[in-house]
Amino acid sequence: MKTPIISSQELATILEDSNLVLLDASPTSNVSGLASSINDVRIKGARYFNLKTNFSDAASDYPNTIPSVEQFQEEARKLGINKNSFIVVYDNLGIYTAPRVWWLFNTFGHKNIAVLNGGLPDWVAQGFTTEDKTKKRVPLGNFIAHLNTTKVKDYTAIKENIESGNELVVDARSAGRFNGTEPEPREGLRSGSIPNSVNIPFQDVLQDGKYKTKEELTKIFGAVILEDKPLVFSCGSGLTACILLLASELIGEKETSVYDGSWTEWAQLEPNA
Q: What is the pTM of this model?
């Protein structure tokens, strides 16, 4: 794919393609401040991608942590994903969890994936057909995962970057949380920001559940990112960081990565910074 996003109209034309694997990554519970009225249907043929349970490291102290190569490969195969699969992922909030899935597959070496722009709400609004959610078995896939370690940053890398300044950390949380004027949703976690980081709230790159135009995104990023450096995206737990990362991919070729522990980890390991 030339672009990491696909429209409902484009998806409708390839729905019967034998290499297509549709993944429904809708959250299993209401997200703080966000809720969908579309919870009981899916796009025809979609398979449920359980981000929290099957595609995160359950042993981690932090939410949404990237799983091991072995876990990701095994779970992807269970979904019937093959080495040559073209994946389209969506969620029922428009754009929310799907970019994290897109980033995970890219990080594990599978670039033939796109996010449905507008997600399930746009698909339904356009009048395309859906089906009831039911469990179904699919043949085991032959997907092979290869982790690109340059796409994932840990606490040590972020700490060292404060001194070196080689990369720019871009935080996707709200301005209030970033500036320390609003509380974090996680009880007991202080608000604030990583030293020398900048802020683009993830909502700023979206409109009506879709990504804004390339021109609008260029203006948003250009107003905040004033240096030509690789970008490290962060948020509360590594989820909405991927919304921003995908937005940056739509406008340029900068080197990008995600601080996977994000503010949840940083604030606990740096309680007084």
A: 0.95
Give the burial class of 162: count Cβ atoms within 10 A of its Cβ; 0-12 exposed, 13-18 middle, 19 or more buried: middle
Q: What residues are paired with 31 via a beta bridge? A: 34
Give residue-wise pLDDT tens across range 228-270.
Answer: 999 999 999 999 999 999 999 999 878 999 999 999 999 999 9
Our measurement of the distance from residue 186's CA atom to the centroid of its chain's CA atoms, rounded to an integer in Å, reads 20
The rounded distance, in Å, linking the Cα atoms of 251 and 131 is 35
**φ, ψ of residue 246 in degrees (nearest 5):** -65, -40
Catalytic residues: 235
Contact yes or no for 231/244 (Cβ under 8 A): no
User: What single string gives the DSSP state of each residue in 40-97?
Assistant: SEEETT-EE--TTTTSS-TTSSSTT----HHHHHHHHHHTT--TTPEEEEE-TTSSSS
Spatial distance between the Cα atoms of 3 and 116, rounded to a whole number of angstroms: 11
Q: Is the pLDDT of residue 25 over 70?
A: yes
Distances in Å between the alpha carbon of 225 and those of 85, 195, 267? 35, 15, 23
What whole-number distance in Å separates Cα of residue 232 and Cα of residue 174?
Answer: 17
Q: How far is residue 127's CA from residue 46's CA, in Å, rounded to a whole number?
A: 17
